[in-house]
Amino acid sequence: MSSIPTDRLSGSKHPRVTDHVYFPPHQSNKQLRRISKYGANKALCETLGDFSQGGWWAAPLWQKDSAINGVKFNIENPDAPASASHDSWLDQKKAEGWTYGPVKDPEKKEHPCFVPYESLPAEQQAKDHLFKGIVAALAPLLEK
Fold first, then answer.
1. Chain centroid to CA 16: how far?
2. For residues 66 and 59, what is the distance between their CA atoms, to the nearest angstrom?
3. Which of 2, 19, 32, 105 could pair with 110 as two cysteines, CB 3.0-4.6 Å apart?
4. pTM of this prediction?
């Protein structure tokens, strides 16, 4: 069996508190890759002081859908720059009724990254590059 650490406490401000989730051998590799990508993004967010993302299973559906859509975009557009990944995310958020807000608030549908890519802080631009790199590294392994 394989093991992936996930946060025991959703939105925990204690990122070292972990629980291990065990996957039976028949568990989908595709699902494991989604979780791994999400986990890397979550870890980067935490280094930037954003502890709003719980583990994959604790994440709300809108957050999982956003991650999956980002993976799909980067697989379908492997030569697109990281800025295009952000633009795709921004288009999705606009369609869902999100707007700019100084603090991420899912209930109000406000997000501080709801700005053009060029207006993002360098740390947030780096997150788009990381996301794109992880997807590119895992894309050859995806099940067709």
1. 19
2. 11
3. 105
4. 0.67
Backbone angles phi, psi at 96, to 5 degrees: -90, 0
pLDDT at 15 over 80: no
Q: How many residues does the chain have?
A: 144
Are 100 and 90 in contact by the 8 Å Cβ rule? The answer is no
3-state secondary structure 63-84: HHHHHHHHHHHHHHCCCCCHHH
Tokens 């795709």 correspond to 88
Query: How many CA atoms does the CB half-sphere of 70 hold within 13 Å?
Result: 29
Reading the block at residue 29, the tokens are: 């590799």
Distance of CA 127 to the CA centre of its chain: 9
Q: What's the pLDDT score for residue 92?
A: 95
Nearest-10 crossing angle of helices 61-76, 82-95? 140
User: Which pair of structure tokens corresponds to residue 120?
Assistant: 């993002």
